[in-house]
Design goal:
- The protein has a two-stranded antiparallel sheet with strand order 1-2.
- The chain has one domain: Four Helix Bundle (Hemerythrin (Met), subunit A) (Up-down Bundle), CATH 1.20.120.
- By secondary structure, the chain is mainly alpha-helical.
- The longest helix has 27 residues.
- Helix content is 57%, strand content 5%.
- Helix 4 crosses helix 5 and helix 4 runs parallel beside helix 6.
- 33% of the residues are buried.
């Protein structure tokens, strides 16, 4: 199956090596499904006050990190949808540092963010599970670099793993 094979380095910008390297070998759709449970388990018992914690001045709060994860996943998946459908239109990058404050995530209840995160991840899994086999190899240009649909799936999983590690190591120790 095309979603069982790690993308080759040429299938994505080398910047994303740090994310893809975190992803274990195997079925990426199954991993994305498991990640939903792992991330929600990590965050679900936080109080509203704890979810507003930032580990240093100028850093995002836990709610903002979760919002960023959702924003990035949506963007990765719109790229996967477009490229998977054969759309060759080059797609721009996005400024995560502009998106986070514009999302006003700190003003929302954590339960609302968790519900949205669940919906975003379920939509990701449904999109990827419904792709025909040949779509996984299709590529396009995003942020000025070629990327395959398979690369985007692995980047999505690795991006979440990256931020979950940061949450566990830098946020939740102090927030708990």
């Amino acid at each position: 199956m095309p979603y069982d094979r790690r993308p080759d380095p040429g299938e994505y910008n080398a910047y994303y090596d740090r994310y893809v390297a975190l992803v274990p070998a195997g079925d990426i759709i199954a991993l994305l499904t498991v990640q939903l449970d792992d991330t929600t388990a990590l965050l679900r018992d936080l109080s509203e006050e704890q979810a507003l914690h930032a580990y240093a001045p100028g850093k995002w709060s836990i709610k903002e990190v979760l919002g960023h994860m959702m924003d990035a996943e949506r963007i990765f998946m719109i790229r996967a949808l477009r490229f998977g459908r054969g759309d060759a239109t080059p797609l721009p990058s996005f400024d995560e540092n502009a998106y986070a404050p514009a999302g006003a995530f700190n003003a929302r209840p954590l339960a609302s963010l968790m519900s949205e995160f669940t919906a975003v991840r379920r939509a990701t899994v449904a999109l990827l599970a419904g792709l025909p086999a040949d779509a996984w190899q299709r590529t396009g240009i995003a942020s000025g670099y070629p990327v395959s649909v398979r690369g985007l799936a692995w980047i999505t999983a690795g991006h979440e793993l990256h931020h979950r590690q940061i949450l566990a190591q830098r946020y939740l120790v102090a927030a708990g």
